[in-house]
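Design job #97: recover the sequence.
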């Protein structure tokens, strides 16, 4: 890397767990780009100061992770329509004049992962069931609507949150968690957007015996790669999609925005991230 190298990064608190430096570092090397991608820890009170430092430092842009995905929005000069609908920004492009443009690539990552891992899935058809109503769920419900799903059912422990999320998107409806067994037989697609089943978190205790064997089951958790939900779905013959692809694919449009190349997701990158 030379002193003229391009720079990009990821800002969050904490940020040490982020896989973004690994992903973008892999692509920079693969495509022979003279650039650096760095992790920038920023407590909430320091967000503006760190962003100003990146602008002054000639950065091309940066990713935004928790807890800054909403807090960054008032600092931006322009927010793309999809990011505005989702209500969160995970990618910022710093224009040559120093203005900031906010984007959200999570919806893209989610859909690209399904297309790659389950090419036979007819996107947009049938009922989609979404577990959880947090930030990830918002991006996924937006993506499902964008792909043509007219029947999206959101289940959350707090019914109010499920209903609030559903109100923001046409075709979506919010339900209480304990109503889930009655709806599972209708599902063509079941997506877990909660952190349940993640390493260090409680398991997602869900009886899927009433789920159609044809329904595709996707968990956006990628550590472990096969969550309890995916293990039980696979055991009964359901097609499954793991969460690692969403993480990898959501990084692609950001890399393209900063460095001018749409990178691909290869086996070497998957291996690196899963290690």
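Job complete. Output follows.
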């Amino acid at each position: 890397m030379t002193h003229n190298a391009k720079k990009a990064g990821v800002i969050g608190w904490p940020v040490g767990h982020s896989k973004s430096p690994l992903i973008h570092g892999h692509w920079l090397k693969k495509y022979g780009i003279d650039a650096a991608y760095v992790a920038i820890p920023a407590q909430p009170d320091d967000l503006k100061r760190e962003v100003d430092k990146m602008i002054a430092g000639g950065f091309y842009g940066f990713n935004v992770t928790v807890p800054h995905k909403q807090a960054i929005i008032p600092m931006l000069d322009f927010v793309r329509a999809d990011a505005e609908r989702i209500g969160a920004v995970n990618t910022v492009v710093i224009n040559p004049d120093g203005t900031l443009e906010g984007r959200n690539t999570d919806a893209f990552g989610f859909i690209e992962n399904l297309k790659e891992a389950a090419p036979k899935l007819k996107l947009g058809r049938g009922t989609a069931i979404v577990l959880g109503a947090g930030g990830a769920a918002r991006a996924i419900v937006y993506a499902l609507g964008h792909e043509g799903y007219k029947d999206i059912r959101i289940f959350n422990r707090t019914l109010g949150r499920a209903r609030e999320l559903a109100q923001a998107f046409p075709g979506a409806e919010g339900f209480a968690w304990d109503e889930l067994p009655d709806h599972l037989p209708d599902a063509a697609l079941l997506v877990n957007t909660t952190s349940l089943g993640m390493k260090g978190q409680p398991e997602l205790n869900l009886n899927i015996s009433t789920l159609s064997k044809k329904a595709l089951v996707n968990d956006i958790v990628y550590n472990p790669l096969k969550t309890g939900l995916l293990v039980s779905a696979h055991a009964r013959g359901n097609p499954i999609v793991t969460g690692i692809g969403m993480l990898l694919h959501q990084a692609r449009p950001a890399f393209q925005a900063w460095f001018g190349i749409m990178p691909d997701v290869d086996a070497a990158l998957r291996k690196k991230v899963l290690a």
